[in-house]
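An instance as discussed:

___
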Amino acid sequence: MKKSILIGLFAVLLVACGGKTQKNNAQATGTEAKEQVADASTVNVYYFHGKQRCKTCIAVGDVTEKTIKELYADNAHVKFIEVKTDEEQNASLVEKYEVTWNALIIAKGGNSVDITDKAFATAINSPEVLTDLIKEEVNKRLK
């Protein structure tokens, strides 16, 4: 039952967010994204999105950015990186993480976790759950 609800939610989000595959149209914050990939000492919290974003997409990005800024402001080894998938300069990141629409990925070197499903399920109605999940996954990679 729970799985059916999640599948239905993602189908709605896919349509609402302009759900076309954007794998070949990528981008983040320019050269910053490329530099972050190379730095294995940094935990990168990547929020991938296209031009068209629904309420939930925006909430995922907002909760994630706020969490990183509030909890890790003094830690130079934790970065929030917004990656615009429709910009060419981000194509390598989009390809590396096999992003096809929106995604929330926490990575340090070769150790990454995709928490997109849980992020989209909790960002609006239970943002504290998403905050706790982000904190847990970032802290695992800081050790």
About this structure: Helices lie at 2-16, 31-38, 55-71, 91-96, 116-122, 127-142. Confidence is low (pLDDT under 50) at residues 9-15, 19-38. Strands lie at 43-49, 78-84, 103-108, 111-114.
